């Protein structure tokens, strides 16, 4: 909803970031925090059919579940980039619904609620297996009596040492932007460190 | 079948239909009609998506979630308002155009499986600006795979086009660096 500074809608290159994590952890909120359009989704009420699959332990206040893709867009005019954010349910076994979801993704943020850490096991395994760069973002819930440090969380999740763990408030745009920046920094240092970029050519002159 | 008169009103007239939240979202789901009501009077969102696309599951075009789609020659079609009005069908076409949904004309009668209101919606959305498949699916309230089929039909019919890829002189790393710059700027603003 925030019109950006540059009014000329020049051609932009699309890029893609995935926001994953367990049920009710705030993925939709995070997508909405940076999206310039109202986040779109096909959120449906939690039905009895998913009763045994989407446990509500600890988050009884939540009555709906995202069973489909959340989607947001942010245009970075100055950089000529259109950033697409996809919020996905924490169970990669359902991701076949969007077969190209992870193709060419810049990386993934796995959003976690420290009360329900186990929700992140599946996506962590998925992204590790596919060598897609990811970071962990602890969504700080105000009513959470226990605050764990990023180190404690990293230890509990048996994360490889290079995977960053950050805290955030998924409702907040700057906080979310910092998380995404941390992800891209991680992607740049760990996905591209072994592939030397071609010798830099002067701007605008393709080799 | 080929030239079905658009006697039925376009989608915006379907009661209870909100294109932004067809499946719910913040809008509560429409109440189910009584059990003895005819199936056709059920709210649109209770029609199974794959009924709309004739049970097909494979699009003929490789379309991805972030593939952008544009309406074909929007200027031409806006000028030629009765384009879709096949001979003998001009009256209906003009009526629909007056209803402010000129996108419908393009798709009229050319879809193999018959025109569905969602196809009109898609063309209308893509006329406003290029839209990604993901956005189209969310806005018409269909699963991505179902939206893909409709979009694929519209590409076949020439109502939509995939704009040619931009001449991009940045490699992957440079794109990531640019993205990082943009995100850092966003996180710094007070």
UniProtKB/TrEMBL annotation, chain B:
Pfam families, per database record: DUF742
Comp. bias (Gly residues): 85-100
Low complexity composition bias: residue spans: 1-13
Superkingdom field: Bacteria
Disordered as annotated region, ranges: 1-37, 78-100
Protein name: DUF742 domain-containing protein
């Amino acid at each position: 909803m925030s019109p950006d500074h540059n009014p000329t809608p020049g051609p932009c290159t699309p890029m893609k970031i995935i926001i994953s994590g367990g049920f009710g952890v705030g993925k939709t909120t995070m997508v909405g925090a940076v999206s310039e359009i109202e986040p779109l989704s096909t959120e449906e009420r939690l039905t009895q059919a998913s009763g045994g699959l989407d446990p509500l332990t600890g988050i009884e206040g939540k009555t709906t579940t995202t069973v489909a893709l959340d989607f947001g867009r942010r245009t970075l005019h100055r950089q000529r980039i259109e950033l697409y954010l996809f919020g996905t349910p924490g169970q990669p076994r359902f991701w076949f619904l969007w077969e190209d979801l992870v193709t060419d993704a810049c990386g993934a943020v796995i959003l976690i609620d420290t009360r329900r850490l186990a929700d992140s096991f599946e996506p962590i395994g998925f992204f590790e297996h596919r060598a897609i760069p990811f970071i962990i973002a602890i969504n700080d819930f105000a009513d959470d009596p226990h605050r764990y440090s990023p180190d404690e969380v990293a230890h509990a999740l048996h994360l490889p040492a290079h995977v960053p763990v950050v805290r955030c408030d998924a409702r907040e745009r700057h906080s979310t932007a910092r998380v995404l920046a941390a992800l891209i920094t991680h992607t740049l240092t760990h996905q591209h460190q072994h592939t030397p970029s071609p010798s830099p050519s002067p701007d605008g002159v393709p080799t | 079948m080929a030239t079905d008169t658009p006697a039925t009103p376009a989608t915006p007239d379907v009661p209870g239909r909100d294109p932004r939240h067809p499946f719910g979202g913040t809008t509560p789901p429409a109440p189910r009609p009584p059990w003895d009501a005819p199936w056709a009077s059920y709210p649109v969102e209770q029609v199974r998506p794959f009924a709309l696309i004739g049970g097909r599951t494979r699009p003929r075009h490789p379309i991805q979630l972030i593939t952008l789609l544009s309406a074909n020659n929007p200027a031409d079609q806006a000028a030629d308002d009765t384009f879709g009005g096949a001979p003998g069908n001009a009256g209906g076409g003009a009526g629909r155009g007056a209803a402010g949904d000129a996108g419908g004309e393009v798709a009229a009668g050319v879809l193999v499986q018959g025109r569905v209101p969602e196809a009109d919606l898609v063309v209308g959305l893509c006329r406003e600006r290029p839209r990604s498949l993901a956005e189209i699916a969310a806005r018409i309230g269909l699963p991505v795979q179902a939206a893909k089929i409709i979009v694929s039909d519209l590409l076949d019919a020439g109502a939509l086009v995939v704009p040619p890829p931009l001449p991009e002189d940045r490699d992957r790393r440079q794109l990531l660096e640019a993205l990082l710059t943009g995100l850092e700027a966003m996180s710094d603003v007070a």
